[in-house]
Specification:
alpha/beta; 4-stranded antiparallel sheet; 13 helices; about 35% helix
């Protein structure tokens, strides 16, 4: 019954041909694309060319002859349509954390006389840490972090709020926050909006321009499949470009970096968010990964993500496993991102035993098992195989094995 239904779902899948574009180990079901996307064949080929034909043959001339110097803007322009952003507003550079520091500082300066940054207490920790770092640097009179529960964010906004900082999808629970409403709420009190798109870019439609978002940041290694440590990106709405100032005034953000002037003069527009020399190898990998998004309808990607998660929950219930977990994600699919969060008192051991059976998911403190769905390469058959393996783990109580209680550095 399950197999025939699953086969029918995969046969009707409009994205089914994308799977063959990825390097997927035959002995694994990979449900962790929300942490690290799988390797695409295009990326493997492109990085090989950069190594052998560009760096290997043309050496330093490649900055001009192969356009290495243009990669930050080139990659940014490929990401822009995935964000619902017109050209000239997205740049690829540095990491999400570094980019967030830049845009938070810029946003604060655009709201003189205000000092509070309101965020959810369960926001991704690096986002909170960076505000704390800014506060330590500038003093609480210039930058103060206000943490509230997600459901109380709108009510916490007032005339003292300079910035609303939120993750579009909660990294732990998978809850999808209402960007439209919260961006409008920030605008209504005169505050700037900064969104972290780490768990939404590339897996659902976004409309940053239409919704009036001020700034956004994201990473390239999750659903964009750019590889481990892939550079991040940032979005700065064009309406702010004339009054921008960001503190990491490195030479690549200068209007004429190869003039080597001793005095800084910012480049025009989003280019001023550049800082140091772009990491060509990792940026070329992300550039290649983004090729598969050309012409791709993200509404179709979103629909498949929901289909995969819905099937997972249905199979969990059919196998009598749902009572062993507490769903930490919203029950309504429209209110979730592309991963499910399941609570279990021995969640770490369950994840490790599941991995040992060939299904890769991950764990988040304190008791969350996260199951990520990457619609470009995950199939409904993957979901069936994963639930079968999970049932075997729990039935045999493999998760209680002492081997699976030893925490590794990366969970």
């Amino acid at each position: 019954m399950d197999q025939s239904r699953v086969a029918a779902l995969d046969n009707l899948d409009p994205l089914r041909d994308f799977r063959q574009r990825f390097v997927l180990p035959a002995d694994k079901v990979y449900l962790d694309g929300n942490s690290l996307g799988a390797l695409a064949h295009e990326v493997e080929a492109a990085t090989g060319r950069v190594l052998r034909e560009q760096w290997g043959d043309d050496l330093i001339a490649s900055w001009n002859s192969h356009g290495w110097i243009d990669l930050p803007l080139q990659v940014g322009e490929k990401i822009a349509p995935l964000l619902g952003a017109a050209p000239g507003q997205v740049i690829c550079a540095d990491s999400l954390s570094v980019n967030l520091f830049k845009v938070l500082a810029a946003a604060l300066q655009l709201r003189p006389g205000r000092h509070r940054i309101v965020s959810a207490a369960d926001n991704f920790p690096t986002d909170l840490y960076l505000v704390q770092g800014l506060s330590a640097l500038l003093g609480t009179g210039a930058c103060e972090l206000v943490q509230v529960p997600e459901e109380a964010v709108a009510e916490a906004l007032d005339q003292h709020t300079a910035v609303l900082l939120l993750s579009h999808v909660n990294f732990r629970s998978g809850r999808l926050l209402p960007m439209t409403e919260l961006t409008a709420a920030a605008r209504d009190v005169g505050a700037m909006s900064v969104w972290d798109l780490a768990h939404s870019a590339g897996v659902m439609p976004l409309a940053l321009d239409a919704e009036g978002v001020d700034f956004a940041v994201g990473c390239g290694y999750k659903f964009l499949n750019g590889g481990p440590g892939a550079p991040g990106f940032l979005y700065a709405a064009r309406r702010h470009h004339g009054g921008l100032s960001q503190p990491l005034t490195g030479w690549m953000g200068h209007r004429a970096p190869f003039d080597f002037s001793p005095d800084y003069a910012p480049a025009a527009g989003v280019l001023q968010f550049l800082c140091g020399t772009p990491p060509v190898l990792s940026m070329a990998a992300l550039d290649a990964a983004l090729e598969m998004f050309k012409g791709l309808d993200l509404a179709v990607v979103r629909a498949k993500s929901i289909s995969l998660a819905t099937l997972f929950l249905e199979l969990l219930h059919q196998r009598g496993l749902s009572d062993l977990f507490t769903l930490a994600s919203p029950a309504q699919a429209a209110l979730r991102g592309s991963h499910l969060a399941l609570r279990h008192p021995l969640a770490y051991g369950v994840v490790q035993a599941w991995i040992a059976r060939g299904v890769v998911a991950d764990f988040r403190e304190p008791d969350i098992l996260r199951v990520g769905f990457a619609p470009l390469y995950n199939s409904h058959a993957d979901v069936l195989t994963a639930v079968d393996a999970l049932q075997a783990v729990l039935r045999a109580e493999e998760h209680r094995d002492p081997r699976w209680q030893q925490r590794q550095r990366v969970t």
